[in-house]
Amino acid sequence: MSGSGPTPLFAAYGIVKRFGAFTANDGVDLEIRAGEIHALLGENGAGKSTLMKILYGLLEPSEGVVTHRGDVVRLASPEAARALGIGMVFQHFSLCENLTVAENIALVMPKSLGGRALPERIARLGREYGLHLDPDRPVWSLSAGERQRIEIVRCLLQDPKLIILDEPTSVLTPGEAEGLFTVLERLRDEGRALLYISHRLDEVRRLCTRATILRGGRVVGACNPQDETARSLAALMVGTQVRAVTPKAPPAGGRERLRVERLDLPAPGLHATPLRDVSLSVAGGEILGIAGIAGNGQAELFAALSGETPAPRPDSVRIDGAPVGRRGINARRRCGAAFVPEERNGHAAAPSMRLSENALLSRHATAPLARLGLLQRGAAQDLARRVIEAFDVRKAGPDPAAGTLSGGNLQKFVVGREILAEPGLLVVNQPTWGVDAAAAAQIRQAVIDLAGRGAAILVISQDLDELFEIADAIAVLHAGTLSAPVPTGRTSRAAVGLLMGGADEPGADTVALPARAAIREAAHAP
């Protein structure tokens, strides 16, 4: 995609990257100009991460070149990339919890930029860009938004000319995201180049004036995102129109299938979050969304609901009326429950095991499957095949190891495995974390359809668009305390975002009613 305009600040031409017989990038061209925010778009497995790692010196290409102001350069390491002015803000924070802000930043600073003056430089840069940080605060005491600021500040302290951002808003409240957008626009206006990677296409349309689209490791198009809609961008990414999610019908007032009553749990570790007086209720046909910023007790709540962490009292958690608070995950599955944890690799699936073996991991202890003899290899392969076909899981080979799948395809497999069990209760943590628009729509539709068949669904998610699309009501988990659920039609993203950030009271457009009465009132409203 070499153009006739000015020489790009950085460019990649003919990039090929092979891993054995697999080609992750296949002749990719990319030009990034100074003073622009350039989007790199593609579905899961399209080759974005590989190209990003090549530009940051984490991988070297099998073929092709990278240029800086027209000159071919070799990026043999991240240090070499940073020396040329390339910085990167990763999706997953790489911070040491027990160190201070300044100590974390000093870890990656060249000696010439560290020393006693570093705290003042951090504070000065924070004031300049609105990225306020206390250099002496320990990281464990910071919110997700403040941790994101650390990543950006330590990148900016090295005065980068190109900043690569990988899903930078994935753990931010709406207000924090707005603040980040202001910073990014200022950096653009200073003449820096930004390469922006996100599955949130409305953000891309707001920020970016050029986009390169990858599919199957190749460049398949380029556009100005501001001339597109989110749906047309998604179609460019996947090669076809993404089916819209069918809106969920109001719940029909089914029987209560999950009740959590006054659940208190101490923090299981030094940096974990204790749960305080958590109560909730979900009936058949209902989807209750739990919003919150990472680190506010979502993992601890999931563990308490799944049985990985026992509750203090048996009646703290009830499934279809049975007290299961002291019972483990297999006992809860035998009560008709299913669970999808946030971490798909290592928690939801064993990366080194085949898909057929992973298909049985969550079902081996359930009585109906034991009677059917599904522990036999042929039956396990049949179960995996049904999940693969129903959820369009794309893979290499007939029964590959789970770890060989892209993140989005493994997520579809894990969610599909649980939904095809037809549970009466599904608890899912971050159902579409890091997946492309088509995969997200498919997963959300499957969750809605399961609720339509009478299951109770509890969805823990940091994606407010997701919760407003599929949930009947939303509650907010902040610092281990759960707010009263409110029907999605009677609140707003701004009000929920305030609660996520720690506001004590709901916004004016939020009505704090008990979950059962509120949902049923909304369902029967004219």
TrEMBL record:
CDD domains, per database record: ABC_Carb_Monos_I, ABC_Carb_Monos_II
MF terms (GO), sorted A to Z: ATP binding; ATP hydrolysis activity
Stretches assigned to coiled coil: none
Domain of life from the UniProt record: Bacteria
ABC transporter domain ranges (all copies): 10-241, 258-504
Transport in keyword set: yes
TM helices/strands, residue ranges: none
SMART domains for this protein: AAA
Gene3D superfamilies linked to this entry: P-loop containing nucleotide triphosphate hydrolases
Keywords, ordered alphabetically: ATP-binding, Nucleotide-binding, Sugar transport, Transport
InterPro entries found in the cross-reference section: AAA+_ATPase, ABC_carbohydrate_import_ATPase, ABC_transporter-like_ATP-bd, ABC_transporter-like_CS, P-loop_NTPase
Membership in a protein family: Belongs to the ABC transporter superfamily.
Protein name stated in the entry: Simple sugar transport system ATP-binding protein
Organism: Methylorubrum rhodinum
